[in-house]
Write a structure and sequence with these properties.
With 206 residues, the chain is an alpha+beta fold. The protein has one domain. It has 8 helices and 4 strands, in the order αααααβαβββαα. Strands 3-2-1-4 form a 4-stranded antiparallel sheet.
Amino acid sequence: MPTSEATVAGKGGDPYQEALDAFLAAHVASGGVVAAYRAVQAMPYFSGPDRTPLAALRTGRGACTAKHLVLRDLLRRMGQAAVVEIVEGDFASGIPLHPTMPPELQEMVRAGGVVDFHCRVRLEGGPALDATWPLALRRWGFDVREWQGAGDSGQAIAQVTVRSKDEDVLGTKARLLAGLSEADSARRLRFLALLSGWLAGLPQAD
């Protein structure tokens, strides 16, 4: 279960800050907001047991929570005012059907109704940035776009309700997920496991 950023970082937060600086130097340099967005977007999607941003930086992959915490913190390093929004929506609604999916995953995509609390980044007074899906997933039907720096990026879930802009993203998301019914929680976890298993077998790099 996710924990708060304070717990993740530990006293002083040095391991995360060092990893963030290394990522910034290696993948963003002086490229600006668009470069930061694209660097995080390029990280393969994987929903595993450790959803922390430090784990995403160490493994080079992550799900929406970790990826958008990394993006938020990169942007703040660059002097941008950025927050993580937690939005509620049907996660299955943004997933395209593909014949290589396991049958159970195909059935869940068709049926929809996978309630999730999804993360994205909001620039102050500006666009909503969703870096969930790498561009390479366009080959499998994902609606992924090359964000050019103006307006919202493509969104992993089209229809959402904003639930939080709290600074403690991991703790807030944990509380929201705890409010799901047992059936909705089980369906969400099964969907994420099937989706991550399928995506792990696909090349997610251009």
